[in-house]
Amino acid sequence: MKSKNIESLVRANIAKLTPYSTARDEYKGELGVFLDANESPYSNGYNRYPDPHQKQLKARLSAIKQVPCENIFLGNGSDEAIDLIFRVFCEPRVDNVVAIAPSYGMYKVAAAINDVELREVQLREDYSLPVEELLAASDENTKAVFICSPNNPTANSFAREDIMRLVVDSECIVVIDEAYIDFAEAKSFVTEIAEHPNIVVLQTLSKAWAMAGLRLGLALADKRIVELMSQVKYPYNINLAAMQIVERLLSESVAEQVAEIKSERKVVAEALQEMACVEHIYPSDANFLLVKVADADAMYEWLVKDGIIVRNRARVKGCEGCLRITIGLKEENEKLLNSIRRYVKESVDSRS
Ligand SMILES: Cc1ncc(COP(=O)(O)O)c(C=O)c1O
Fold first, then answer.
1. Residue 78, ligand 1, Cβ within 6 A
2. Residue nearest to atom 3 of ligand 1 (CA)
């Protein structure tokens, strides 16, 4: 970060916030007579409030991610962390954030909900990072720049030196959303947070870890940022059932599943390449492919009728004519490919 420090970026009301403190914060033991939180005394496994600091789960994630607990914030999905970045740093109608486009839709939605201006900077035609344009879009009221790498929906990772240049030359928080990092060849930026306190790395258990239904996202950042986000979040944002199930599932390796998705990504891309309706398949570092086709709307409708749901990105600027296709199980991918083969045959037949 160029000159500003974290403290100067925080909203004034948040900087002086007295956060909610639970009565149990004052009691460090395990056993006791708990008459402090107006809970039911009848035990069913869930009658007590969960740990608002999520200490046990953070310790597990700290070992997996090789990041100290004090640098880990846990949210109800990374969507909660995105919203909290606005709530901690952005004064509504005064501050702004800068984000790449096209990218993940929640940056825009969270900005709108928080009444904060979002300045979108279009990626270059080859989907590389327009560092100079991103810096030029920032001013003294810019509190954060949102980068997503690997990017949704373009599927590519950005050059490490480009992201680092942005981190070093920006005067604000640089959010690096790594939701798809487990499928990428590129290395995570978590190793940089110790030296660059303006980096916030977002990760999630919703993708490679196969826990989208449990809602667990991570923000990995300087301990002051983690502290601020923790003060603003709802005290019990992660429920006990989710914490218990996440802990159990974290002990089961997903390495094989990730390897299979990566190999299926190649199989699907190669098969699509052969199809007449496919114009371009963008290189992917994620668990999906961005595919430019001759008539995206027609193909999308065909697939829906066949019970196959993909994401139509044809009307997104920079993704014209594209469908975003998630890599599924081998048999699901085969169904998709067979359906597209039938679609191609049908279009040829109807023309003859
Ligand atoms: C880039 C990106 N970030 C974050 C998310 C949301 O993650 P979570 O399920 O942890 O809220 C998604 C979901 O599709 C995503 O594509």
1. yes
2. 179
Q: Which CATH superfamily is domain 255-351 in?
A: Aspartate Aminotransferase, domain 1 (3.90.1150.10)
Q: With a threshold of 0.85, does the pTM exceed it?
A: yes
Distance of alpha carbon 272 from alpha carbon 281, whole angstroms: 8
Listed by start position, the domains of the chain span 6-250, 255-351
CATH class of 6-250: alpha beta
Tokens of 214: 């449990």
346 pLDDT above the threshold of 90: no
Q: What is the dihedral of CA 59, 197, 11, 129, to 10 degrees?
A: -110
For the segment 175-188, the average pLDDT, to the nearest whole number, is: 97
The Å distance, Cα 75 to ligand 1 centre, comes to 12
- What is the overall mean pLDDT for the chain? 96
The residue among 214, 208, 142, 153 whose CA lies nearest residue 175 is: 142
Q: Is 93 left (phi over 0), alpha (psi -120 to 50) or beta?
A: left
Q: Is 83 in the pocket of ligand 1 (CB under 6 A)?
A: no
**β-bridge mates for residue 119, sequence order:** 98
- At 350 the pLDDT is 76
